[in-house]
Specification:
single chain; alpha/beta; Rossmann fold; eight-stranded mixed sheet; 10 helices; 43% helix; globular
């Protein structure tokens, strides 16, 4: 059942599954998607309270005037936690959701029990920033359709697209419907990302999951992310590109389940 939480000037849409007294797992989706990204991964959260939310500007959540910032998007998550009366939570984030997760761990360290970072980066290169800004300008002018195929090829292997994988079908649909103003507002937030010098301050146990052939997050960046976070482990999903868990849901579910279970025993 879809619910809404007042968060400053908007409402955040969320789905809340599992025992209310169980440890909570907040799940942050990738850019242009929504809470449904996590549907194939709910099995990993059995016995936990899984809370999937739509980030500001996405899905059924509010779309305020942009540009947005990562501090703002992380504060939305904290406000959602306060609304749900959750002092602490496990957090799982993919791509943009992982950028928000890093920001949460750095700016609100006492609110996290653990962190899972899936196909995400601590910083964009200047070339990547320029590319995203070019995309945002193109989308504002012409909509998403002209870059839709390019995004899909960056996010999925040719084999996954040819097989019409369920995860690829979902992403193709949700991206095609994405609001062009939100595209530009969220792009601005992602382009400000730079947590590299702060990663050593992340103290919660962290699972880093990446794909060695991810065109958006080079292998060495994933290795650096895991190396700089003191209590982190790195696992690869392959063959895959940027949305690797949707190509390998069962493998990712096992990794996430083991991480959540181990962290819950530690706490």
């Amino acid at each position: 059942m879809l619910r809404f939480a007042p968060v400053g000037d908007i409402e955040i849409a969320y789905a809340d599954d599992g025992p209310r007294a169980a440890p909570a797992v907040l799940m942050g989706h990738c850019f242009c998607a929504d809470r449904r990204f996590w549907d194939p991964h709910l099995a990993a959260c059995e016995g936990f309270r899984a809370i999937r939310f739509d980030t500001r500007g996405h899905g059924q959540s509010g779309r305020s005037e942009g540009p947005y910032s990562l501090t703002q998007l992380a504060a939305d998550v904290v406000s959602l936690m306060d609304h749900l009366q959750l002092p602490e939570t496990h957090y799982v984030g993919v791509s943009m959701g992982g950028m928000i997760g890093q920001t949460l761990a750095i700016e609100h360290p006492n609110r996290l029990l653990s962190l899972t970072l899936l196909n995400t980066t601590p910083k964009y290169s200047e070339a990547q920033r320029d590319l995203w800004r070019e995309r945002a300008n193109a989308v504002l002018a012409e909509g998403i359709e002209p870059i839709h195929s390019d995004l899909m090829r960056r996010w999925f292997t040719d084999e996954a697209l040819a097989a019409d994988l369920a995860g690829a079908q979902y992403i193709a649909e949700v991206v095609r419907e994405f609001d062009r103003r939100s595209f530009a507002s969220v792009t601005a937030a992602m382009c400000e990302l730079d947590t590299v010098d702060c990663l050593t301050a992340i103290t919660v146990p962290t699972l880093v999951v990446a794909a060695p052939d991810d065109p958006g997050v080079p292998r060495e960046v994933s290795e650096m992310l895991a190396d700089r976070i003191p209590d982190a482990s790195l696992h690869w999903l392959q063959p895959a590109r940027h949305l690797a868990s949707l190509e390998h849901p069962d493998v990712f579910n096992k990794l996430l389940r083991a991480h959540l279970t181990a962290c819950s025993h530690r706490s």
